[in-house]
Amino acid sequence: MGKLDEYQAFVTIVELNSLSKAAKALHLSPSATSKKLTQLEDSLSVTLLERSTRSLAVTDIGQSFYRDCKSILASVTEAEERLNDHKKYVIGKLTLSCPRVLLQPQFFRMLNEFKQQHPDIKFNVSVSNEIEDLVDGQIDFAFRIAPLKDSRLTAIPFSETRPIFCASPEYIKKHRKPENLLDLKNHSVIIPTYLNLSDRIRQLFPNQGGSLDLELLDTTDDVYALYQWVKQGGGISMMLDMMINDDIKSGKLEPLFTEFSFPTQKVQLLFNKTRYQPKKMLLFREFVLSYVSNTVNTKAKAS
Question: What superfamily in CATH does domain 163-255 come from?
């Protein structure tokens, strides 16, 4: 596996554009990672990466070799997965990609229930908003709140969520409750720049061509920073109901404009339909479909 390890090190360095980040991802020291790259270049008698103390640059021949290495590694992975599929017990690891906003109790309850049924299948949960790795084959499944735009991907409905305006009781006591949406201009508004919630807020402001000057507002690109900021009385914002329902019920946050509601947004499980699906992926797909069906039935009985 020595040569494949060198290929993997090279691919990881290129994709992360950093030797130190690649070393961390590979669970190696930077010196060991650098040594694998040097050994690979020496064995090929080429320079794959131009490197200095501050930067890395992939050479033309390195770009071509990178694509070949990706293909080779993907073929080896698929071959190993086909062998595992013939074993009596399904084993392996599933890599899931999920944005921070969806890292809610329901998500982890689902993973735990799956692991109870299939204890030999492990998870690697990658927190990200991107789907490129899903197409490249590095991610098995991705949970996303967005319309499906890539024809190579298949979407399975997982749940629904709705954005809600909210503020802390302390903020409302100090600054009063806004009377309507237009009254927000007289309040401290925190704009989330992740996902597409900012676009929804901007649509509420017909002035300035339906846009907001973000330089005049507080912003954050992290859902938990937004959550804590609002809870501590920093201002008014909009968050997904799946994240704040418990806080609203307990009185830690107060919903605003309850007479107005945004349309629900679908949470979907995405996977690449063009790649080979090993048994571990088929089992997870079937489990999610069953889990969603049971959840819907439970909610229907409760109502």
Answer: Periplasmic binding protein-like II (3.40.190.10)
